[in-house]
Amino acid sequence: MSAQISWPYPRVLAHRGGGKLAPENTIAAIKVGLEHGYRAVEFDAMLAADGVPVLMHDATLQRTALNSGTVSALHAADLQRIDVGGWHSLRFVGETVPTLEATLDFCRVHQVWPNIEIKPTPGFERATGSAVARVTAQLYSDQICVDGDQRQHADARVPLLSSFSRDALMAARDTAPALPRGWLVNGVPPDWYEQLRRLGCVSLHVNHRYLTAELARKITQAGVWLFCYTVNSPQRARTIVGWGVDAFCTDRIDLIDANVSCP
After folding, report:
1. Is the per-residue pLDDT at 262 higher than 50?
2. Looking at 36, 57, 205, 208, which residue is catalytic?
3. Which of 56, 57, 227, 245 has the fewest CB atoms in 10 Å of its CB?
4. How far is 145 from 141, CA to CA, in rounded Å?
């Protein structure tokens, strides 16, 4: 990880599909992102009870469905009958939990690039990483190339997988080694470079609150792509861009231009 190779993907992503303007992790959210000029999104993928990856951030349905159930206890078909849009606003009443497959089909048709966060429930880290990678690799098999997980071979059309879970990332690598991967962290650990090499990741995804100009410089000068979450202030976006951050996601797609200039 030393040669400087430019980030090939879009530089500003709509967080969880449509930021604060739509119910998170839904196809409706991605449509809202498109309405605001966003052709790149970040969303979360979790396993339903039948092993089907679906879009969901929380292990329970309480926050986004006002339901006491858990994602891991319900089949994907059951989740597709649950309203996860009504909590947000009347416009989205009836919006349901989409499968990862259906979401990626939509993204391909509408030329939206996804960063897929592998979001396992405890105990399902490897199973979730493997299932997400398998579905993604199947749907992008015509675009994935040999060594596609290497920065010099990264294809701008192919999704980037990311996760806080190292076990999930390793399972994804074992299942679909040509898919690029990024490691999510909150604060950057001292051994970040060694961990990235061990995981075979092309990018480090950090909480922007714990990033400094000096740390950003160290990461990018090491030839690592640097991604930040979740940047909701235009001023902060300009600041981290000035530090050399390659890309970031935002909830405020109404305030931050999808085509913001980055070095």
Report:
1. no
2. 57
3. 57
4. 8
Active site residue 15: yes
* CATH code of the domain containing 110: 3.20.20.190
Catalytic entry in 15, 88, 205, 208: 15
Calculate the average pLDDT of the chain: 96
Is 57 designated active site?
A: yes
pLDDT tens-place string over residues 129-155: 999 999 999 999 999 999 999 999 999
Three-state SS for 194-214 is HHHHHHCCCEEEEEHHHCCHH
Tell me how many domains the chain contains.
1
Does the pTM of the predicted model rise above 0.70?
Answer: yes
